[in-house]
Amino acid sequence: MNHCIFCKIINGELPAHRVYEDEQVLAFMDISPINHGHVLIIPKVHYSELRSIPLATSIAVWKVVKKVEYAIWQTPDLVCDGTNILQNNGAAAGQEVFHAHFHVIPRREGDGSRFGFKTVNSSDQVRKDWAAKIKDQIDAA
Ligand code: AMP
Ligand code: ZN
Based on C-alpha coordinates, what's the Rg of the chain? Predict the structure, then answer.
């Protein structure tokens, strides 16, 4: 029994306003948009987070992110002055639906939305050390 709301949207158990779909990917309107035109893009197979998605599938998803982002700039009356591509992994990062997804969010000058990010103190040495540790993992993958 799959209780995932995005899987239910994929299989038609829950309604959604679809803007694009192909064999591997579905794009639909976010039910609680940050701005008009806020679209979610998901793989049709359930993966909870970005790191679980096989590379070929993630490329298919990214192609649709690009397609939707382009369309949003072209859409009459949407007033798109910019876009944010947002992808949250894990509750600590604000993920609420654990079926991996990308947000494409149209932005308007002065729309008042902003991310609540702050920065940490980091010296050049600290950044150098983290770079080396992350690079080790990239090389090991
Ligand atoms: P996240 O915080 O990245 O997991 O984002 C989850 C997003 O899914 C939020 O922007 C919600 O508004 C959106 N959402 C939740 N339920 C639905 C639904 N039934 N149809 C469309 N979007 C949804
Ligand atoms: Zn799912």
Answer: 17
List the strands of the sheet with 82-86, edge to edge: 18-21, 25-29, 39-43, 102-107, 82-86
Instruction: Give mean pLDDT, residues 27-33.
Output: 98
Q: Where exactly are the structural domains of the chain?
A: 5-115
Q: Model confidence over 77-102: pLDDT tens digits?
A: 998 999 999 999 999 999 999 999 99
Segment 41-59 shows an average pLDDT of: 98
Query: What is the pTM (predicted TM-score) of this model?
Result: 0.96
Q: Considering every ligand atom, which ligand is closest to the CA of 94?
A: 1
CATH 3.30.428.10 at 5-115, yes or no: yes
CA of 39 to the centre of ligand 2 (A): 17
Task: Assess whether 101 carries a catalytic annotation.
Answer: yes
Ligand nearest to the CA of 7: 2
